[in-house]
Amino acid sequence: MESSTKRITLAFYVSAELRARARAAYRATGGLEGDPSWSGMLQKALLAEVERREGAHNRGDPYDPVDDAPLPPGRPKR
């Protein structure tokens, strides 16, 4: 995982069904997977998706960090 020790709060919306499913998976497997906490499991999931996108769209290289300007809300326009 990320080597930085500075931690921040990240808030986002998910469906109630996904939240319930994720919590159940954490409770059932957190110890087996070595998750230090609920946040630890979510951080691993987020990192896996970031690495997948870097691999698929940026030759596996990390994207350059962006400023903290707000991201557009809602779903992207197609």
Structure description:
There is one protein chain. By secondary structure, the protein is mainly alpha-helical. It has a domain at 35-59. Helices cover 49% and strands 0% of the residues. The protein contains 2 helices and no strands. It has helices at 16-33, 38-57. 0% of the residues are buried.
Output the structural class: mainly alpha
Question: What fraction strand?
Answer: under 5%
Q: Quick check: average pLDDT? A: 91
- Rg (C-alpha, Å): 15 Å
The biggest sheet, with number of strands, parallel, antiparallel or mixed sense and barrel status, is: none
Order of helices and strands: HH
Unreliable sequence segments: none
Layout of helices and strands, plus pairs?
Elements: H1 16-33, H2 38-57
Concise overview:
With 78 residues, this protein is mainly α. The protein has helices spanning 16-33, 38-57.
Tag the structure with descriptive keywords.
78 residues; mainly alpha; 2 helices; globular
